[in-house]
Amino acid sequence: MSRNTAGGTIEFLNRILEAERAGVKVLNDLMPKIGCERERVLARKFLRDEGMNCQILKTIIENAGGEASKDTGDFVQKVESLPGIDEKMDLLVKGQEWVAKQIRKNRDTMMNISEAMLLEAMKIQHEENVDALKEIIDNEMNGSK
Predict the structure, then answer these.
(1) Enclosing domain of residue 124
(2) pTM for the full model?
(3) CATH number where 117 lies
(4) 65-75 per-position pLDDT tens digit
């Protein structure tokens, strides 16, 4: 996609930016409530990843001549509406999966190779985060914390 027809790509990147920003907020709120040390360590890593991704996305958008959204995705309200930490962590997994899926679906709309590579790395990071969190959750469910 050329820089001249980047509107759809900017919109997509802003949706992902808003989702990453929501991830930062959710993780900040969840970390003090997480009882499992392994989950807390992983949540801290997720938080660093999400913050870094926000900066990367903002830079890509601005380099493309777009304006980075200042909004936060509705994921925050979805997580806050859940009663327990387990449900919140399950939704966190789904949120990570959603970002990876959106990048997979939209990878052909990237504006240049370096931006596509950054987003591919972001996708892989989310997939790895999902796998790691699922493993911890499965271990907890099976009693081996």
Answers:
(1) 3-141
(2) 0.87
(3) 1.20.1260.10
(4) 999 999 999 99
